[in-house]
DNA sequence: CGATTACTTGAATTCACTCAATGGCGGTGG
DNA sequence: CCACCGCCATTGAGTGAATTCAAGTAATCG
């Protein structure tokens, strides 16, 4: 599949209009953002810790993760990125990249210049706020991860992570009947939850035996989301979805707001 | 001690000028931000999870922490806040507060209206960027916390936390000869590192016996920071300090940049 | 001075880890 | 088409780090 640059902007616009209704001029500015598409294999570093960033990128297809290595060589994943995410948006105003980002499945990535983005943010406060908000939601997810890893046992922790993943995928239309494409190894899940790969296998088995999940090679099914939420102590508030009322941040909002381009949604991510 | 509103703005200005050099107009806008000062006892909630925020606040004196409770009642602290921090800046563009913030020592707090802040950010892109950057650094710290809690053992984890605390305090001039005011209970430290209070006691003892730290009731001394850094696998890059070069984000920077008001620094926080 | 809170220490337990071996699946190449 | 290799997942056994429970000490405060 090929992905046109203009399609990229649709993704961004769609994502935000639930929160900020953008004017014609604003959406046009986003459309004009030059984007360069690239495809990655699994397990390829997209950006590396310590580098000085000139670009940022949007995930169009596939999953990626942010991670760091300890001096002992252990790996910790601190974020999972799904289509529609801008995993390294934080680099917009940070000089050095503080964590590496790697594709965990084959990925289609849209790169753009940070400088271009900074210019847009300077000119359009509302777009700036929309991007800013993205990074704030990411931080909120990180806070929940700290709680999850710090205070919940492996079983609960994994249930929580899977709930989060499902709900986020749902928000971009990648879940059907509680089932979604899930080509993520147990080793990756272990690195994301701070447990060992062996224990991950055992805990997943327990979740399976309790009927909370069904796993196949490439897919994961959640027959009863409510039960999984309960098992994972999952409360979706921290994801800050469905906050359309937040549009009120700019009460005297600009000119004519664009209507959503809805049909870009469903077909978008599915391969 | 009393803290004048104008003093608050000095704090902010000082903090940022190392990264963004602000124009007269911009510093004035910050000075004009109406601020309301308030004093809190230890262990008082300053903001509560679930509320809809209208204000944000700056820590002027004392320490605070962001936390959440699990359904079992366990507590996890996901951020420690020191003077100069704006702990809930994330609420600027999030509708609901996703974690509570509590004073862990007596605190002097400066409140301001989020609406006022949004207006400033709309008018001054560089101020917006400066605030934004604050939230990005907070997120970077959260990522490191995920690594710390997820992949390091208790001993290393605590050493790391103490290093971070020391380095951050150093940046606002609150450390003398490796010694700083540290009226934080072991229970709080335990909640911040995701271990039990009992184990915290044991691990601190080990750190003491290895000569890495000296504890007294209200103070903590680090005789050899390099050794503690090594023990904690601590690399300060993630704090994104000393990035003055980042001023280059706005190459065609505005009018005449203000000079630092240096003397506001040392006397500021000390009680 | 008694009450409360913070810290320490010991003992037993448990959750999760490491090490190690095995089984399954998918791709590759003879 | 089958044999082989590599990756991933599983399972068992033994270990270990951190937990809970419990008791006791030290410091602080009204």
From TrEMBL, chains A, B:
Residues 152-226 form the HTH crp-type domain. The keyword tRNA-binding does not apply. Transmembrane segments: none annotated. SUPFAM superfamilies: cAMP-binding domain-like, Winged helix' DNA-binding domain. Keywords: DNA-binding, Transcription, Transcription regulation. It comes from the Bacteria. This is Crp/Fnr family transcriptional regulator.
């Amino acid at each position: 599949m090929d992905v046109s640059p203009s399609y990229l902007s649709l993704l961004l616009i769609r994502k935000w209009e639930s929160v900020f209704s953008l004017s014609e001029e604003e959406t046009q500015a986003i459309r004009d953002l030059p984007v360069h598409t690239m495809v990655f294999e699994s397990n390829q570093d997209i950006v590396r810790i310590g580098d000085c960033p000139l670009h940022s990128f949007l995930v169009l297809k596939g999953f990626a993760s942010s991670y760091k290595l300890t001096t002992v060589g252990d790996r910790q994943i601190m974020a999972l990125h799904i289509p529609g995410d801008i995993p390294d948006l934080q680099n917009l105003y940070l000089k050095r990249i503080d964590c590496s980002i790697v594709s965990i499945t084959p990925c289609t990535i849209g790169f753009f210049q940070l400088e271009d983005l900074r210019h847009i943010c300077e000119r359009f406060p509302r777009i700036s706020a929309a991007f800013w908000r993205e990074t704030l939601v990411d931080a909120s997810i990180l806070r929940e991860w700290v709680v999850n890893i710090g205070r919940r046992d492996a079983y609960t922790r994994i249930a929580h992570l899977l709930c989060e993943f499902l709900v986020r995928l749902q928000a971009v239309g990648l879940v059907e009947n509680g089932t979604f494409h899930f080509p993520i190894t147990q080793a990756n899940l272990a690195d994301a939850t701070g447990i060992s790969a062996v224990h991950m296998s055992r805990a997943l088995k327990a979740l399976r035996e309790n009927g909370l999940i069904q796993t196949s090679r490439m897919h994961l099914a959640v027959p009863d989301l409510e039960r999984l939420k309960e098992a994972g102590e999952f409360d979706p508030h921290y994801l800050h979805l469905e906050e359309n009322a937040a549009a009120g941040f700019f009460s005297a909002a600009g000119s004519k707001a664009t209507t959503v381009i809805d049909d870009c949604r469903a077909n978008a991510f599915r391969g």
